Amino acid sequence: MKKILFAASEGNPFIKTGGLADVVGALPKYLDKKQFDVRVILPKYMCIPEHLKQKMTYVTEFYADMPRGQEYIGIYETVSEGIHYYFIDNEHYFAGDSPYHQVFEDVNKFAFFSRAVLASLPVLGFCPSILHCHDWQAALIPVFLKEFYKGDPFYRNTKTILTIHNQKFQGRWVIHDIENCRDLPDSCRYQAMEAYGESNFLKAGILYADRVTTVSKTYAEEIQHQDGGEGLDGVMRQVSGKLSGIVNGIDYEEYDPLHDHFLPSHFSIKSISRKKRCKELLQQEIGLKQDPTAMVIGIVSRMTEQKGFDLVNYVMEEMINTMHVQVAILGTGEGRFQDSFRFFAQKYPGKVSALITYSEGLAHKIYAGADAFLMPSQFEPCGLSQLISMRYGTIPIVRETGGLKDTVKAYNEIWHTGTGFSFAHYNADEMMSIIRYAYSVFWDKPKEWKAMAKRCMEEDHSWGNSAQKYESLYLGLF
What we know:
- Helix 14 (about 385-390) links the parallel strand 16 and strand 17.
- This protein folds into 2 domains: about 1-250 and about 465-475, Rossmann fold, CATH 3.40.50; about 270-460, Glycogen Phosphorylase B (Rossmann fold, 3-Layer(aba) Sandwich), CATH 3.40.50.
- The longest helix is centred in the first third of the chain and has 22 residues, at about 105-125.
- It contains 18 helices and 18 strands.
- It has helices spanning about 20-30, 50-55, 90-95, 105-125, 140-150, 185-190, 200-210, 215-220, 235-240, 275-285, 310-320, 335-345, 360-370, 385-390, 400-405, 430-445, 445-460, 465-475, and strands at about 1-5, 35-45, 55-65, 70-80, 85-90, 130-135, 160-165, 170-175, 195, 200, 210-215, 245, 295-300, 325-330, 350-355, 370-375, 395-400, 420-425.
- Helix 10 crosses helix 13 (about 360-370).
- With about 475 residues, the chain is α/β, with parallel strands linked by helices.
- The strands form 3 sheets. Strands 3-4-5-2-1-6-7-11-12 form a 9-stranded mixed sheet, with helices on both faces. Strands 15-14-13-16-17-18 form a 6-stranded parallel sheet, with helices on both faces. A 3-stranded antiparallel sheet has the order 8-10-9.
């Protein structure tokens, strides 16, 4: 049996700020337990909810040599949904009300975390066949493994995989200021780790890992080009032989319109007409006018330029004034976008609802109650929201980038195929044109719309498919 250890900065249900936590929390559950012993290791942040910390059991503590001297490392563990979790404890690094703070703090913190993971495993007696590291926060694990443990028999057969969830975030800082990297050889610090005069954790991990993956096939191609590579396109072309894209899945138990405990009304592909009740109750709850004929467009997202909110902001007046639509927006982010959508909600009461917060329950209700789901991202490594919306028969309108291009099949009115609507260029007029097209199908061809909603629900974007590809990747390393 192969032993797999996921190392990451966050994971459901313990700590979550984005899609990384969803992947780390879900994928291990879907891997074949007969072939793989899969465990997860995370930082023991003070901000983890107390009821979850109370479920953790103390394992051991010890001190390890690091550049600051002897550093305390505590280890806790628990089991959640059949998966064994370890937690690295050190309040000096993991205190605070958020897992992430200023970059200059975080680079040193996650360098410590990477070192602590490797120091802890011999103490635990768990020798992984594969260390599966996620994003820049765990990208130094392959580096420290090869630089500090290459002669250690414990790690002789351990391989490493680095998964890039978003190449925009790289862990960059002034080389000399990263205390927990000072004992790395200069050939590493000033070559593999260096990019544009700064230390770059992600670059180092990409070069040192045995395999590199990212979260969709299209994104794996995009990051090898200047427009999508975020400055590392040359590095990605250099390692293209060990790079692959595996699209994320979603947890079909958590997102199930027939059993979702957040929903006031349940439905399935066989009873999709009940979805109308979810729309009615959503309108009632969030202050939209009770109108079954209005096309409700849902958005659940961080409010940033990356997610296309400047485009949405640009066309909002035109959408509301020229079409019989309602817009439900849930999320937080940049102040300018929060303010603009509050303004639209005040200007168009009953037509726009701006929910400047994050609520898991409201998110589920929008996924289930909206007619269409708008996701016009500048770039999107994978995206989960379009997968969730399709699970609930809510038709996505997306830009053709990254995982959005890989997972949403454009509607073809001749062949009666497709699971959504898409546009190619990052342009507000082009986006508005495809929204108008979707609206015309919704309004003039209700049978076509319903058939497309059913095709969305027939799609299989569960973790089962993706897990099989990861299993092949794991076995291919031996």
